[in-house]
Structure formats: C-alpha cells, structure tokens
Amino acid sequence: MAEYDQTIRYIPQQAFNYAGNPKQNVPQDTNANEAQINNLNSQTKRSQICSKQCVVICLICIGILLLIAAAFTVPLVVILTLPTASYKYIFDLFSLITTDSNSSLSLYGVQLNLNPSSLPTSWSQCYTATYATNMGTTNLNSILSACNKNMLLLGCRQSGHTIMDVAAMGYRADVLYNCATTSNCRNVANGVGWYYSDVYSWGFANGTDSVTRSTCDTSSTNAGYRLCWCTQNNAGYRCGSAIISNTNYEKVIYRSN
C-alpha cells in the first residue's frame, strides 16, 4: 500500500480538476487555438466567395467583349462581300469613308450610266469636248481655270447623249493628284483611284484597282470602270472599255463647292 500511496501522491491535482469539469479548466492556449482556427475558416470562406465573384465578373466581361467584337466583325465581313456599287451606302452607314471631308461628296466610287440631272443643284458643267480634242498644257490651263471649284467630277459619254457612261467625283486635290509619269501611281480617295499629269495622262480607276499608264491606262481589270485622257499633246484615249480617238465620244467635267 505504501507504494500505491506514493504513486497517487504524485498525480497532479490539475488532472482531477480537468476530469471533473473540463469546460471550465481547458487551458487558455487551447481556447486561443480554436479562435485562430475559426478565424482562418472565416477568412477562407470569404476568399472563396471573392474568388467566385471575380470569376463571374471576368466571365461577364469576356461575354461583353465577344459581343462587341461580333458587332464589328459581322458588318465588316458583309462589307467585304458586297458588290462595289453598294460600298457607298455601307460606308455612309458606318462612317467609314476614308476622310471626314468626303461626307460632302454626294457620290462614292465610280458611277456607271450617270444622269447629270441626279446631281445636286450646286454642280454645273464647266468643260466638254470630243475625244478628238487635244488636251495639251495650254488647253489644260484653260480647263482648270474654268473648272475652279473645290470638287470636280470627270465623266465621258457618247456624243449627243446626256447620260455619262462612266463618271466619278472627288475633291480637287485628289482629282488633280500629280503622278507625273509613274506608271502605277494613283491616289485612292472617295472609292476612286485618281491620277493626273499635265504631260502624261489624267483619269481614274475603280477603288484600289491597279493602273498601267503608258501613256494612258491600258489595264483591263474592271475595264468598264476606267477613264483616261491623254494630256501629252494627244487626243483620246478611253471611256470605260471603249478606246477612242475620234468625235464619237465626249469628255465632260463638272464642278461644285
């Protein structure tokens, strides 16, 4: 018994107290650990909620960006697949004309079978002559003095007719863009490829179509949309696909501010 009594004597009193009433005698360190665990759990839940919210917001943003991209991509595809004659209306609708100033031009691109009566009243004819008429430097100076407005329209038609077979309008600086004697030079503006030289040739092609000036443009691509007048002391040369050097066709210029 002495041995058992000695053993019992060394059992800590705290053990008996904890066994009898554990809730009141839990060490303070244990309570602190539980508080830290609860705090970590709370932070983890908040982080999970924030992460879910961020994912939702990102998905919404991606959806909006895809809708915006689709809104611009679909009209662009439609524009690229439409015939050239439809470009004016699409470009006007989406304000995609090359320069803001082109909004004052009533026609976009090369026109076929144009009736001058359809032009705004501000337009007036300032020059007409047959394809047999020489267009040298002296004549050009007189022509440009008469056709002295901010906007010009070049056209050609069969003699005695009103309707122009081919025509295009543009701002003066574009229509008179000096390409000198460069064969493939043209200035694309208002859906027309313009070129000019008082010692070579003057005319246009459709949109971005290439030109081959020798002296006048001899290219055959979209031939019906081309016009060229020799200016190297020569007469002629083309009204659409027709090659002329006689009086059967007329050169026509209109002007407007």
What's a quick, concise take on this entry?
By secondary structure, the protein is an alpha+beta fold. The protein has helices spanning 2-9, 13-20, 28-81, 87-94, 137-146, 172-175; strands spanning 111-114, 124-130, 151-158, 164-171, 187-189, 192-195, 201-206, 227-230, 237-239, 242-244, 249-256. The chain crosses the membrane at residues 54-82.
SSE topology:
Blueprint: H1 2-9, H2 13-20, H3 28-81, H4 87-94, E1 111-114, E2 124-130, H5 137-146, E3 151-158, E4 164-171, H6 172-175, E5 187-189, E6 192-195, E7 201-206, E8 227-230, E9 237-239, E10 242-244, E11 249-256
Antiparallel strand pairs: 1-4, 2-11, 3-4, 3-11, 5-6, 6-7, 7-8, 8-9, 9-10
For the largest beta sheet, what order do the strands appear in spatially? Answer: 5-6-7-8-9-10
Main beta sheet strand tally, sense and closure: 6 strands, antiparallel
Q: What structural class should be given to the helix and strand makeup?
A: alpha+beta
Shape designation: rod-shaped
**How many structural domains can be distinguished in the coordinates?**
2
Distance N to C terminus: 129 Å
Strand content: 15-25%
Helix content: 25-40%
Ranges with pLDDT <50 over ≥5 residues?
Answer: 1-11, 14-20, 76-103
Count of helical stretches: 6
Keywords: Membrane, Transmembrane, Transmembrane helix
Transmembrane segments: 54-82
